[in-house]
User: Fold these one by one.
Assistant:
Number 1:
Amino acid sequence: MTHPIRFCLVLHNHQPIGNFDGVFEQAYQDSYLPFLDVFEPYTDLKISLHTSGPLMEWLDEHHSEYLDRLAALVEAGRIEIIGGSFYEAILAMIPSRDRVRQIRDYSQWLEQRLGATVRGMWVPERVWEQPMTSDIADAGIKYTVLDDFHFKNAGLNEDELNGYYVTEDDGRTLNVFPGSERLRYLIPFGAPHETVDYLRGIADRHPGAVVTFGDDGEKFGTWPDTKQHVYDDGWLRQFFDGLVANRDWISTTTLADATQSTPPVGKIYLPDGSYREMTEWVLATDQQVEYENITHEMHDDPRWQRLVRFVRGGYWRNFKVKYPEANEMYSRMLQVSRRLAQAEGAGASSDELNWARRELYRGQCNCSYWHGAFGGIYLPHLRNAVYNHLIAADNLLDKAADKPAKWVEATADDYNFDGRQEIRLANDRVVAFLAPLEGGHLYELDVRSICHNLLATLTRRPEAYHRKVLAGANQDNGHVASIHDRVVFKQEGLDQRLQYDDYSRKSLVDHFYDDDASLSSITSGDAEERSDFRDGGFETKLRKGVDRVQVLMSREGNAFGIPIKLTKGVTLNSGSNELEIAYLLENLPQDRTLHFSVEFNLAGLPSGADDRFFYRGDHNNRLGQLGTQLDLTDVDDLGLVDEWLGIDVHWSSDRATNVWTFPIETVSQSEGGFELVHQSVVVQPHWHVRGDANGRWAVTMRLGLDTSLAESRSVPVEEGALAH
């Protein structure tokens, strides 16, 4: 053929910050290494390769020989290394200053380690907003890959997607390649000849075209069942053989070669979006169900192919609405970013600031800020990792600011960007965030010595895919399915474990129940809420002393039809790792009791291990693992220990009472299928209260956070966290 088509194979390899070391290793053995082993001998083939910063750093530490092989292939011109945001932040989620710096820093790292000339980049999750163009260009990037879905949303048809386009913002230009959705589903799930046949159809209609495939490298071995299919059954070798056999009309090439040898097809401005599936996942659950129903109903309608290119899903940023926990992480990340920018703007420069920047960027890793076919925000270890790095960055910024060894402060601001004021109590040991206008909840509790947020919880909510769980379907049809299509259950009886919350699983959540409310009725969700205190707004006062701060939150509400005033105060002293929590109920009846309860949710303390347990008195008096349901009577203290994390959380009360404990678990989907995930531990003291002669009742509780175990076995590391 006189004008062969150029076929750009672009692979994106990624493991998120916080993923388990064994997962990194397994992905290396199942995907990254065998792919390179198969690819190397095919000297006529070229690819463009993106490896995210978290994975690249892990490879450099654990398998530097793999990077050496990449460097040799880069020098030989067979692999083009493309960059991106160092720690795989979704660019629309982070400030412009962080976008540019993350991209530049990673390009520099890749050039130094692999000898690569980085001119292209991978846009994480292909989340696109047109104003990002100028930042990407300012970071030194010349071209990138998005999905053809973006281009179709801009009005292009299928026959206009065989090349690349130039786009622009504020006079800065960027070349953008449309990655084929059809190829994403063919490779590697279709037979190798199907891809060749598809390319032949394009070559016949558009000689000299540029066709781009851009997708996850993990689908070559790490995704379920693909290792057998891709390597053991020989799919990848057959695929490469097919490309080589047709090299007279298929020229595998890099993105760099394509931009140097062909001009852009034209100019385009792309609407905000992502790949098609992502725009569906971000929809509110009821809308997502309706969307799926309509597309299923219309699939065989002869008009559907003409209509589908005008169908739009949702907007990525609304993941922060769909999952308020994502907004909490995002808000905390922006606090750290702004604080770092202020320090740099004031002319500060130090090793602490440099490490704080790296910790911030790690805390911007996108995976736990959203949810779709992958576990995402449902995976506690990913949420914990984000907070770990953000808290570490905050610690380093304190060090750079030369804060005293002991200090305490209380501030009020709109910390989570909801148009309402929140409260921040902080000292050298603890940071606590409270939302007075959302039930006076304690929604973040940072233990600074171990860089852990004890309130990185998750509320149980309906998901569109729960329909599949309830149907109990299982797929075993003898062929390898795309991860978007598989239905596999990792545990039995998941349909019986679906349960939803009608309030946020935070702490200092106030309840009034019927007298006969029991542990079983609480855990099943059958206990009826008898007041408006749980979610109501509280008036707030801050009291500030030299070494002591306090927030007082008060509300005149209603319980069982009785007007009651509830005041709760949280006090923090400088140098202390303990919160003092006091409650005062007023206008209580003297002729009857009211069943009152305060709920605590504690996250990052997994169940199912003997070194994570409840106790009373001392550690020798163990009451079971942290997933245990307990119905304790007449107690005034309860401890929760996580020896791996190195923390001892101790609750105590000046009034003996009864306490319920139980786990919060979600049913979510991940790469491996549907699974049950432990999210938090509920500790819920409850009293039958009666007013005194003045209609008053009070209790003072303490929540102590002892990390001496972690500190005894740890040494500070330069990143600012603790090394275990």
Number 2:
Amino acid sequence: MTGSDLFVKCLENESVRYIFGLPGEETEDILFSLEKSSIKFIPTRHEQGAAFMADMWGRLSGQAGVCLSTLGPGATNLVTPIADANLDKSPMVAISAQAGIQRLHKESHQYINLVDLLRPVTKWNGTIAVTEAIPEIVRKAFKMAESEKPGATHIEFPEDVAGESCKGEPILSKRVRRPDPDESALNEAIGLLKQARLPLIIAGNGAVRKLASQQLTELVKKYNIPVAHTFMGQGAVLDSEIQSLFSIGFSFRDIIMDAVNQADLVIAVGYDIAEYSPDAWNPRRDKKIIHIDFTPAEVYTHYQPCVEIVADIPATLKALNQKMDDSHLIFANWYQDVRRRIIEDRASYALKEGQRFTVPGVLSILQSMMGKDDLLISDVGSHKIWVARNFSACCPNGCIMSNGLASMGIALPGAIAAALHSPGRRIITVMGDGGFLMNSQELETAKRLNLAFTTIIFNDNDYGLISWKQQMSRGRSVGTRITNPDFKAYTESFGIKSYRPNSVVDLTQQLKHSLDLRELSVFEISIDVSVNQDLIKRLNIQRKG
């Protein structure tokens, strides 16, 4: 048995099903060891695409997604997705080849100190210097990646170590039990709730990631507490529940802030500061805060909890539901006017025949077609703001976007991972023209794997989010305009069905046809972006400067 054989046995022990990556000379031993394995290696068209697939696999499954690269430029291409997984709290293990041990101490062809390079963007990383360390390093990488809060780890595997003869066995993988909530902290939190008149919950990424949705929904319905979702917390409580105030996290003052400003107590459940700064919702630092999360609160001037319940989130919510059995704690419908205004505002963007396409208008059509288990994956751009604001997840983790690192180019590779993870699920991915071309080459990967999902490209020939923000700040935009290929012809060159609807009727019929057929398809939709500035006027937001 070689070092690579033992390495692959350890990956099998971690229940790895797929490894996404690019081959290289230095990964030869690993690839041939994988040939005999139950693990399927999926060659992708770029290392960034491979790592985004691993990132999305982790988000959907809760188990670490795995990507593989060769040394040097292959490994440096992993940096952005690794950082994305780490800030989005997605479990991922990145594996990179490395030059032989005998040349790591000196300048050498394609050699870069990858452990030092990736240290700032990983929870942990290390080098396999001897074959005896393989079982421990693999187990540690997966344990660290999957432990709360999840994130990215990295293993560097020198080519000579991979080829060495060795003996060894994988280390048994056991589930680590997370602690139950502290009784005193629970009582203190309940005391704060009894004193509150206008409590509000902010549900973050952690409220969705560990399926705390059921307990959270019970809590908000039982005591009539409104809940605002961060972008990555969408679906923790479904928007169909009257307690949902939809999403929070915009860089402008949206309708939901009227409720947030009134709240005299904020219960932060699985809230990640990296996603949305508390400066925005607690500018005067006068909010009473209850922190419920797997880890202690970050030390932050605008986020100073009165009490921290550091424990398993579902267990904490369940304990609150059991201990707060008090009918006197049912709160008034103080937030319902805000919810009504949000619903009316969202409905106003529905498209009529003859109107130009807008992002919120298209999302309205898409929303009407979504089933309870369907998944929407959003790339990063101006459309992401509209997805967060005007689209409702159909189930917990039913609307996924990157909002920690907020990296463009994640959605198309992410849809590939989602289709592999849940082949029976209808998957729609939306992106701008800028984000699409960052990883559009992965269309070939999707076609080769015979996967089915629908891609929607919102085309405005612009880096639209930056243009929007420049317009808000300066009244004009600079350096954002781009040109694009014929997306329909480009897509069809891969042998993939492509649509370019010209009317609301066309779009509705073609979308329904594509989703019903479960085909791999791409829609190019030219959009009217004036709706972006109209929103700012509607909300009466004053331009800076």
Number 3:
Amino acid sequence: MTGCGAERILKTQGIGAYIVSVSDQQPANETPRPKPLPRLPGRLGLSGKLLLLTIPLIMIAGMLIYVPSIANFHMNRLNDRLAAANTAALVLDAAPLGMVPDSLARQILKSIGARAVAIKMGQQRRLLASADLPPAIDRDIDVRTMTVWSGIRDSFEIMLDRGNQAIRVIGPASGGGQFIEVVIDEAPLRQAMYRFSRNLLLVSLAIAMLTAALVYFALHFMFVRPMRRLTASLVGFHENPESSAYIIVPSQRGDEIGVAERELSDMQRDLVSMLHQKSRLAALGLAVSKINHDLRNLLASSQLLSDQLSSVPDPRVQRFAPKLMRSLERAIAFCQSTLSYGRAQEAAPDRRMILIEPVVAEVRESAGLATDASIGWISAIERGLTIDADPDQLFRVLLNLVRNAAQALESRPKGDAATFQIRITGRREGTVAIIEVSDTGPGVPARAREHLFEAFQTSGRPGGSGLGLAIAAELVRAHGGDIHLVEGTIGATFRIAIPDRPVELLSVRNERARA
């Protein structure tokens, strides 16, 4: 067996048997409940980080809106004062000199929120009206040359100032005037800007909160919740990888998260299937380890009895006794190395140049086909063909293939008129020995070809264990060879290619020198 997943495999004393610890396994009838996603103390989850990221971004967006808005309000406020001053200038300029009473002039200045209005026409600069002029002008603002940046700067300077300074605002004049000047107080303008800022901030805060909530919930449902599902599935699957309760059910999303869900689901199903297979291999290892101990003792007793047959003078006994002793020796050797497959490797092959024909003949007799007239046997081995291989391992490879072929022929309907035949051919292609084992059976089903040489992957025939081809493939690969199913043949044809070992020229030269 190649592994055991979540089980622990321990070696027992002396015989190399495996015992599977099942104390950690969960009862088969109990369905685990998904556990909530664990949270690390003192750390924010993905939702908290998303909220902390959304709020400052919305605040930055609000500030980017507020700064030009307050500058635009400041500019519009000044333009309104200039427009009102132009209207008042038309009234004041139309009246004859000295005909506008001071009380009316004060009312006009109060209505436009100014202390004085002056206009320049040609080379003459006239003061149209004034009331409570300050001793000095603290700030000049010319709206004709104002830029965006200067407007922003002037707006925040006014808002950050203290007191009530006098501001002279200069702008284009209506009619034939060159420009008009208005002297206004800074405090009312500052108060108006404060009120606008408060209202704008309240509206921006409401919009920001609504936008942040919409962005947060949209991102939460689109990304955070699917990521939580993925994370919870990964955590639960890590705790119990043999349970299918934690396999994520992929959604129908077509984006990267949907692809991740589908790939994770496929990976988890493959892992669960693989771990179940490993568990089966571990259980089989436990059963084989128990059988191995008693079977070796029985075979040893049979070997002692077979040794006594060599003294029987009967010619038939003398003919079959060596073969029986050889079979018992091979069976004992198999029992001795029963668990080698469970250790994920076979013993290294003891390779040497051997003839193939005697091995094939022994395979036929061991498979019981020498006396079975219902299955035809054709051996088309090149005369004197040799192969660089371990004879015992080559025997096991061919015996597994021949037995599979015989089982395939036996599974055919009794009334089938087709010829029941097993054919073994052998030839050499340069330094590679080619052996083909074919039969006239129903062939290998298409669904079984993908995992043909994996353990416990049977072709669906009754009585098959699914280990024959896996063992054969492992032994062939240990020789540096290859085994595969030949396509487009009647029945099933397996081709084995085993190359000769490369000759070390230096060692050959040394041997020649010593000779």
